[in-house]
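Fold this complex.
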Amino acid sequence: MTDKILSISRRTRSTPFTRRVEAAGVKGYTVYNHMLLPTFFDSKEADYWSLCNDVQVWDVSCERQIEVFGPDSERLIQLMTPRDISRAVVGQGLYAPLCDENGGLVNDPVLIKFADYDWWISIADSDVRLWARGLAHGLGLDVTIREAAIWPLAVQGPKAEQLVTRVFGDEVPGIRFFRSKMLEFQGKAMMVMRSGYSKQGGFEIYLNDPDLAEPLWDELFDRGQDLNVRAGGPNLIERIESGLLSYGNDMTYQHNPFECGLDAFIDLDADIESMSLPALRQIRGKHENQLVGLVFDEAVNFVEFAVSADGRKVGDVRSQVWSPRYQRYLAMAMMRRDYLREHKSVKVDGKIGNIVDLPFDFDAILKEG
Amino acid sequence: MTDKILSISRRTRSTPFTRRVEAAGVKGYTVYNHMLLPTFFDSKEADYWSLCNDVQVWDVSCERQIEVFGPDSERLIQLMTPRDISRAVVGQGLYAPLCDENGGLVNDPVLIKFADYDWWISIADSDVRLWARGLAHGLGLDVTIREAAIWPLAVQGPKAEQLVTRVFGDEVPGIRFFRSKMLEFQGKAMMVMRSGYSKQGGFEIYLNDPDLAEPLWDELFDRGQDLNVRAGGPNLIERIESGLLSYGNDMTYQHNPFECGLDAFIDLDADIESMSLPALRQIRGKHENQLVGLVFDEAVNFVEFAVSADGRKVGDVRSQVWSPRYQRYLAMAMMRRDYLREHKSVKVDGKIGNIVDLPFDFDAILKEG
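Structure:
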């Protein structure tokens, strides 16, 4: 496909940062939760090196926060996820699959216990608000569910801590991964969490006042000049190298969390009331597919995303990219487990690719030659 | 904003028609229900004249069909909409707002009674599947809810009936508006309905076999050569001139159907079990805003979409376009009713615009001068 223009309208919502994103020279967007998400500024590869070497500011307002508060809030959140949330503390984030009564993936948000009886679901790309409201209405739960007036801004990269500390102060380095503090910017307290959709380290600032969007953006760029701060966004190369999954790409509502390797986030034996657990207990070990990595020495053309063997379709490529660092073509593919049991490689486009576990282990991959 | 590239991935789903759409030279897409929707091929204006003069084929696969079947299907559909669906006949489509327990708009689909106890919700851009599943689970309803393997293809324009008749046969002209017939293409029966997102007339073909997508597309183009058939998509100019609303643009979940002028699709006094009716009965007449048309003699620059008067924000522009036919700049705006009661015009960007009811009445508008 050649490049196509994105037709932008009110439906593809802008954010309080969009004017600054445009001024920074954004070249590509995607639409995520009905909102603009910048995908690259210079080029995906140049952006990649900037992210890995320095620090970037990302407008991830599209990580909408679905706020669930009220007496039954914790009960509803627990119903929606098979991960045990009972030991979460205020200010903590938990990566957690949301699954329906069949075990199908509805979303893979970070759940944030913002306060007692006040949870934020920091969502990937599906309308979790509608699901939650349907459940709450049907079950007669005493909760309020709304899309909160919050616009996350991510600061990512090895110099992110330095930059965020300059803007939010000395409490920043003490924040542990997936923990947060309420810190002030221009007199307004907002949540700052150590998190973000890269493995380069960094923070997400949960902006709660749109009038502070441009001042915050400007201050990060002013204070970060010597750190080579740049505008960026979730980077396709970095996120695939790091094995970060993307809902809608690597997994959909037609997949279950075992197929996606999310076993560690499911508390199958917990004594919790979660609507997906009965189904997940049945499915476990019997699922047909598994998300794996494929590694090729050169770029590969997947026809209609298919991976075939002996005239049979054995898998489906979900994400793919050339890694400039490792000089390999990387793919994430949903492959049939019966094929995986007997094969360590696939042949696509005339080229042999090794099948590996996710996340990619590049030490081992490079040793293979 | 200058043009931006749309970053396309598996998450922004392609359709069985995408290869043909690309071959036809699509230049712009939007993302709608997590799927690619072509927005223009030549230019929005050239596409507009082709649509109004001849016939176009649109890949509207993104109109996903949420199928609800089983004993409680009709009960669930009725709960979701304040429009009385009890008299619908098999094969009929009903434009119907979906509203939550607060009266907020969840979507504005066409509901199709495909068979007894088998409804299709032909959705606008929100995940109605999740809401329906949440409600069904919470209420313990006996229904199955799924995104059906259906990819609608629209044929629109004054020559659409001619073209669809050539491909689907002589039963086509007898199909009334929002009625359908099961008609065969290459031996496979599929639903053909007189409908579509333009006022130029036409049909939607509910393709139910992806392997027939390209043969169907090709046949429409082969048989339509002398009719000047072109590839197209929902056209911004035509739909605004025609006063067709767009969910996410002209109305959102923060609006209620009265604000959007959808009163005719709400059966306030019907003896039906609809979750929004109690709230809607309370809201009616007391809503603060009203969607209206604004008509300017020349193009207007709305700063941050605002309509202001005497330093106060009195409205919010939702859609806007230059009409090449009427030589007017047209906008749909959500305006405060207290302002509307006392004013017939607004001043934006130094230009006076007349406030008119929707849909636009161009005879009256042109008479005004």
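The first strand of chain A starts at residue 5 and ends at 6.
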